[in-house]
Amino acid sequence: MPLLSAGQLMQYAQRQALNAVFLKTQSPAAAATYMALSTSATSGVLNSTDLTMAGTSINEYATASGYARQSYGPVAATAASPSLIYNTSQMTWGPFTSAPGTANWGICTDGASGTGTNAIAAFLLASSRTPSIGDSLQAAAGTGSAGVGFLAQV
Amino acid sequence: MANAGDELTYQPGHGTGYGHNALGQELTAEMKELDLKPGTSVTYMQDDDSGWALVKWVDDVGIDRITAIEPDQFASDFT
User: Fold this and answer.
1) Chain B residues with at least one Cβ partner in A under 8 Å
2) Contacts of A115 in chain B (CB under 8 A)
3) Domain positions in chain A
4) Do B31 and A134 touch (CB under 8 A)?
5) What is the pLDDT of residues A73-96, one digit of tens each?
6) Cβ-based neighbours of A53, under 8 Å, separated by 6 or more
7) CB pairs < 8 Å spanning A and B
8) Do the Cβ atoms of B19 and A91 come within 8 Å?
């Protein structure tokens, strides 16, 4: 079921994870990851088969609003089942110089900018946000509890 | 022309924060705390595909930030 209605790994990351866990390939080298914001509707739009941020279902905020992706900075995956990963710090986007629209999703990717970066995971925001000119948009640091921070689990 | 890693300071002629200037008036107290203020040190990262400059900085509450800056504003307000 490729259409997303809740957070999950995107196709690129599903394949990376399976190939690494089943020892088909080495994992990619450690590197920074970033959290983008998407205006895609909360259901029926975002497609997990979009491999990169160029995907037609991604609908990332425009840079020409002062927006830029923020460092995700997650913890190491927890030694638990299900294993969790989540952001360790608060993240703040903006300040916005024009109204960027309504954000419904956070999308983790492996580059600070550009549409060619890989789409790793999508996170449905607990509540949509529509920042105005001059505003900054904040997301809480994760705690490992569902609904607090950008949390993914396997 | 800036290179990745260059350290610059936000010093706009209008003397107001980046968000304050965009709005054209004082921000709320909460948003003012999160604004990019004159005198803030930034690190140039790269230009986005759109040509806007990405800069890293730390806000008044200690959070690492990345903000996109319009090219002409980057040339005039970051020295």
Assistant:
1) 17-20, 22-23, 27, 31, 34-36, 45-46, 48-50, 52, 54, 59, 63-70
2) 49
3) 8-153
4) yes
5) 999 999 999 898 999 999 999 999
6) A36, A60, A107, A109, A111, A114, A115, A116, A117, A118, A119
7) 88
8) no
